[in-house]
Amino acid sequence: MGGLKLKYKRVILKVTGEVLAGAQKNGIDGAMVSYFAEEIKEVKEMGCEMALVMGGGNIFRGAELSEGGTERATADYMGMLATVINSLALQDALEKIGVATRVMSAIDMRQVAEPYIRRRATRHLEKGRVVIFAGGTGNPYFTTDTTASLRAMEIGAEVILKATKVEGVYDADPMTHQGAKKYGKLTYIEVLNKELKVMDSTAISLCMDNHLPIVVFNIMEKGNIKRVVSGEEIGTVVSAGRR
Ligand code: UDP
Question: Which terminus in the chain has less CB density within 10 A, N or C?
Answer without folding.
Answer: C
